[in-house]
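ok trying this again, last paste got cut off
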Amino acid sequence: MEGDVKKPVERLPVLVQEQFVSPELTTERRGVEVTQEVSEKISSQAVQPATPVVIVPVATPAMKKDPQLVEVESILSEGLNEIYGNLPQQVKPAFRAKGEEVAQTILLWKQEAKLVASRVLRLIRDWLRMVPKLNKHYLEQESKIKTDHILALAEPDHFLPRT
């Protein structure tokens, strides 16, 4: 290893390559020249201002919700007007979105005949827990009442008078 001496690397001379002009290049250059000529002709002509385009907004038809979904949402929102009004502004959109998600999940379970009281209760309870400083006993009571009403909606023979 002591006898290893690094030798300088020999560099080979770099060959100068011939410049080959392909036919594609000449047509591209011709295209550029033609484009320049056309743009010069256009710029020399007087340009008249275009007529303004008026964009009229078209009213999009509101998506009609499924009547069953509307019914489930009304059951879930029953008695929550005051609570929703007192929510902080940053919590309101999330609470509303979660409520709509809960309603859609419940409707899906109902349509698939997979509506189970304990799952519905847990879903509603988790949704209502988003409300800060809500009494846990009130939360349980509201969750159970809403679950009973939803189950009554799902089973027409299960009679539960709505208050």
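PB: full thing came through this time. The mean pLDDT is 76.
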